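Holo prediction — adenosine-2'-5'-diphosphate.
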Amino acid sequence: MGRTVAIVGATGAVGQDLRRLLLRRNFPYDDVRLIASERSAGRRLQFGDREVTVQALSEPDVFEGVDVALFSAGGSRSREYAPQAVKAGAIVVDNSSAFRMDADVPLVVTEVNPQAVDEMRRAIIANPNCTTMASMLPCKALHDEFGLVDMVATSFQAAGGAGQQGIDELLAQMPTLLAEPELLRRDGAAAAKLVEHRVHAATLAFNVVPWLGSPAQHGYSDEEMKLRDESRKILGLPDLRVSPTCVRVPVLAGHAIQIRATFTRAVDVDRAIAALGAFDGLEVCDRPTPLEWAGRDEVAVGRIRADLVDPHALNFFVVGDNLLKGAALNTVQIAELLIDRGLV
Ligand code: A2P
């Protein structure tokens, strides 16, 4: 067989999950290459029953002999090094936003649009944004049944979506504010100033922050625009109407999204629940919460309600672990798909 898999960003949060998932899912490989920055080069990491020395991404020939390279080291590293990996003969599965909207690069949620890998023209496949990813499973299940035309989506995103630094900032704020219950109730603005925030747009502990990402167009953030643009590409619905709002909440892992979806056909709730329950990778449950879903592979959908005014609309609440299905798991599933299709 002689298959070599590389992880770029192997020491990071997603990289750790990639290592764990390749082993847990018995990914068929013969050799593994763990790649990170020069800071980590030379470190030895356990991978199953072997010890692997971390190599620097800048090392010449680091992709020589690699068949599939899983990139999760940030967009600028992907832009610079993914083409080099491809030149060396690898197929790249990229977890950054660098290539997602490139017309020659499939953007794949494995349960939703696996056939898109056949349209790969640059030997690069992109892994979607974590909030979009979780939303796509129920949206596709319902689209097949009723014909999706409109989606109002409001996310509740975990601190961990901003990486380890996002988690560290939230945890550092907690003890100070926990000691100030009176101030939190009587003068929240003064309480918020007792701690520092750099990663999140405002103090996140004991709070809800209606902004994440960078400014894009018309008062929306780039995170919100990803939800619109990536949903359209994944579902193959270029005219899909999307009204996105992304909100940061003081949760460590697990994103949640409230969606009001509108369809061409009238919605029958029982049929909707049956379609959601039968969809691969989805689990229907009454009231899913991010805390109870952290560490789980499946995406949960609950609070499935007919709309109060529009018989063509349905309301539901989606929860998924942003590091698993939202990142590492789908990346590994794409690599498995490439093997199944004989592309690697
Ligand atoms: P390193 O640990 O050597 O810095 P996270 O998103 O959890 O911060 O992880 C980012 C991942 O991307 C880490 O594995 C990190 O490696 C890697 N990385 C960051 N900057 C670079 C770089 N300039 N070259 C290669 N890998 C990088």
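READOUT: The pocket of adenosine-2'-5'-diphosphate is lined by residues 9-13, 15, 36-37, 39-40, 57, 73-74, 77, 163-164 (CB under 6 Å).
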